[in-house]
Each structure stands twice: as C-alpha cells, then as structure tokens.
Write a structure and sequence with these properties.
Layout: H1 5-8, H2 21-24, H3 29-36, E1 42-45, H4 52-61, E2 66-71, H5 77-85, E3 96-101, H6 108-112, H7 115-119, E4 123-129, H8 133-136, H9 139-142, E5 146-149, H10 155-173, E6 176-179, H11 183-190, H12 195-208, E7 210-212, E8 215-218, H13 220-227, H14 239-253, H15 257-269, H16 273-288, H17 294-309, H18 315-327, H19 333-346, H20 406-421
Parallel strand pairs: 1-4, 1-5, 2-3, 3-4, 6-8
Antiparallel strand pairs: 7-8
C-alpha cells in the first residue's frame, strides 16, 4: 500500500525534527518535558505540516502506555467510548496516551467526555489543532493542559528536510538526482512553511522526472508547476485571517509602507476584498484621523473603485489607499475621545441634557424651561460663546485632546486664541 514520503521518512528522534527550536531546541521546554518521560496533557497549536503529529508520535514511544490515535474530523463519540473501554484491561494496564488530531472539530460534549479520565491520570491527552485553542477548545480541557505553539517553518529549516528527502529517495530508488540549479531552494520557499507540502513536491518531482543513465532529472519548470498556489496559508474563517488583518493594520499604524503593501498582497491573494476595504476605512478613522482628515475621503474613493473594478485590478486603488495611510501623519485622538466618552456612557456617568440645550421647537417648551438661556454661537465674535454643553455632573470633563500633528496643533492654536479673547 502506498505510503507518503512524509510518513516513510518521519523523524525517529527529536534531533531529526526540523524547526521549532523555540520549544524543541537545546533547553526548550517541550524538549525537556519529552526527555523527562513525565508527560502532562498537551495541546499542540499551529498550521499543518510543521511537526505536531511527528512530535506526538515521538512522545508516545517514551511512555509505556497504550497509544491511541483519533482524528476529530472523522471520530465519533463511540470511538471515544471504545478508547475509554480499554482502561483497566490487559490492553492498557498502564493507561492510555491519546493523540487527538484536529480537536477543534469535537463539540463540547465530546471534549468533556474525556475530562474524568484526564483528571485521574488514566488518559494522557495530546491534542493538536490548526486553530487558536483559546477560541476553539473548551476551558475545562485548556485548564488541564499545557499549550505549545508550533510555528511555520522557515525556508532554511525546510531546505534541510528537502535535502534529507532527496537523499532518502535516491537510496530507496537507486537513482541519482540531477536537479537544475535553484530547484530545491525554490521548493523550500514555495511551500509556505508546510513541510509536508514540500516533501510531497519532492516526491512528485522525483517520480515525474526523466530517467536516463541511472539518474532522474528535475527541472525548474516542473518545480514551478508542482508548487503553484502553494506558498500562502489563508483561511478566511480561521486564525490566519485575523493575524493578517492585524499585521496589516499595525504595519500601517507603524508607518511602514513596505510591510503594509506586503500584507495587503497576502490578503488579496486570498481574494479577501471586503475585509481589506473595511479595515482601510477603519484605519483612516482610527490611526490617521484628524492628522489628515482628507485621507478618509481618498480611502473611500479607493474602496469604491476597488469594488467597481474587482480583483485583480482592485489591488491598484487599494495599494494607493494603503500607502497613503502608511505615509500619513498619525493621530488616534478621535479614537481615544470616543472610547473615553463611551466608557462614561457605559458606566452610567452623566445626567440630564442641560435645559438650555433641549429641543424648544414645540408649543409649551418655554413653560418647561426648554432652551430659554441658550446662546446662539453665530451671534458672537468668532462664532463662539462660552456655555455648558455637557451634563452638569460632567462639567469640565475632557475627552478630546489635540494630537501633536500639524493639523490638530493648528486647530488648538486657533481655539486658544478665540477662547482667550472672549
């Protein structure tokens, strides 16, 4: 039966695992836990193809427990009961180490069915997930487990595994591999940090290459065809969606035009036009704000143009908007002002609208004292008159503070002059 290359050459020790040095390198916490042999409940979080299953298998070898493996995408509650039924029998006298892949697909009841056995130590749970566990795994499981994040592999780490895979296939087939210059570097880069994807590409290229004189030839053209559209991870409903949007906004907020347009390209590669447009409008108000108020009008025009054009042409006005915002002066004074005011509203601070500001356009308003002492600002010099606008209990509260940019400082100087002359 066919077995994928990634399974045939799966690492036999932690030293063979590429990447994840932050947890598996010398002195790494997960490495120390594995080497101790005292395994707690673990949750492995990270994208596919970065070593979660491999490490779980290596851990299983270090225990004397029965090793069971379930995939939550296909497993049922009966499968869980079948695992639990082995406890206390000759099949699992020392307990069970259960590897539960894609745990986020188990509902709350299914996850909770494991709790009793996790708490008494009869089952050690190692669960893996490609989604943020703090969103998808129930607190009762989280509180009894240690979470380790597995990160996408860098090209250097993938290249080591690719070299190992080529050597493995050469030994397995008895054929030498002649690859055009740059092929394996390209494969390592194009897999987007997914080692399984890279190894699948190596196996495909090795199988499809022309064989002559006991050697297989691998071309760059074949490498490009085998890895097309594979470089970027993107799931519009998943964790990466929000990570990319977050990086996009923070890059613009940080005034880095290069990072801004890079993350824009990543988002648009996933076809996510709506989220990009919404985020650009938010940034114009939240991060540029009153430092360059006209930016909102430009961004809105770019967003409208993007929706009219559609992809791929939409990337042009959206790039214009992103670069404008990234290179604008920044001010969050409006965002801070509304947040402070909203906090007071939510806390119930404030009170009745002052009588002189209340609507007076109806019969009987005067008898109720509505609007009697209101002073019309346009009747005064500079169209300004000092009067109370906030509720009495909030008199003197300041929500808005002028930002240090040129536009807001000019407004501040104007109003200081006007109020000082009154």
């Amino acid at each position: 039966m066919y077995q994928p290359l990634a399974d045939r050459m799966r690492p036999q020790s932690l030293d063979d695992v590429v990447g994840q040095d932050q947890i598996l390198g010398p002195g790494g916490l997960l490495r120390r836990i594995v080497e101790s042999g005292r395994i707690p409940n673990l949750i492995f979080y990270g994208p596919s193809g970065v070593g979660k299953t491999t490490v779980a298998n290596l851990i299983a070898r270090r225990t004397n427990r029965k090793f069971c493996k379930l995939n939550a995408t296909t497993a049922t509650s009966q499968d869980i009961r079948d695992v639990v039924a082995q406890l206390g029998t000759l099949m699992a006298p020392e307990g069970i180490l259960l590897y539960l892949d894609e745990i986020q697909y188990f509902n709350k009841r299914q996850q909770q069915s494991l709790l009793e056995h996790i708490e008494n130590g009869k089952i050690i749970l190692i669960a893996s997930t490609t989604e943020n566990p703090y969103f998808y795994i129930y607190n009762a499981i989280l509180s009894r487990s240690t979470v380790f994040e597995f990160r996408p592999l860098g090209p250097e780490a993938v290249r080591k595994a690719v070299n190992r895979a080529v050597a493995f296939l050469e030994r397995e087939s008895g054929l030498a591999c002649r690859a055009e210059e740059g092929v394996w570097d390209f494969v390592a880069q194009a897999c987007g940090g997914d080692l399984r994807k890279a190894l699948n590409a190596v196996e495909l290229l090795f199988s499809a290459g022309a064989v002559a004189e006991d050697a297989v030839t691998v071309t760059m053209a074949d490498a490009r065809a085998a890895t097309q559209k594979s470089a970027m991870r993107y799931d519009r409903d998943g964790d990466s969606h929000y990570d990319l949007l977050s990086a996009f906004q923070k890059s613009i907020r940080g005034s880095d035009p290069d990072a801004s347009v890079y993350y824009l390209a990543r988002l648009l590669a996933g076809g996510d036009l709506a989220s990009v447009c919404r985020r650009l409008l938010v940034i114009a108000a939240e991060d540029v704000g009153l430092a360059h108020p006209q930016a909102m009008a430009v961004v809105k025009a770019c967003v409208d143009a993007a929706f009219q054009l559609g992809l791929p042409e939409a990337q042009l006005p959206l790039a214009e908007a992103a670069l404008l915002l990234a290179t604008c002066p920044k001010s969050n004074s409006a965002a801070m002002a509304i947040a402070a005011a909203a906090a007071d509203v939510q806390a119930g601070r404030g009170g009745d609208v002052p009588d002189h500001l209340k609507d007076a356009h109806y019969a009987g308003a005067a008898r109720l004292g509505r609007g009697l002492t209101y002073q019309y600002p346009h009747d005064y010099p500079n169209h300004y008159v000092d009067q109370l606008y906030l509720p009495e209990s909030l008199r003197g509260v300041q929500y808005y503070r002028y930002g240090p940019n040129k536009t807001e400082q000019a407004a501040l100087r104007y109003w200081e002059a006007v109020r000082g002359s009154g």
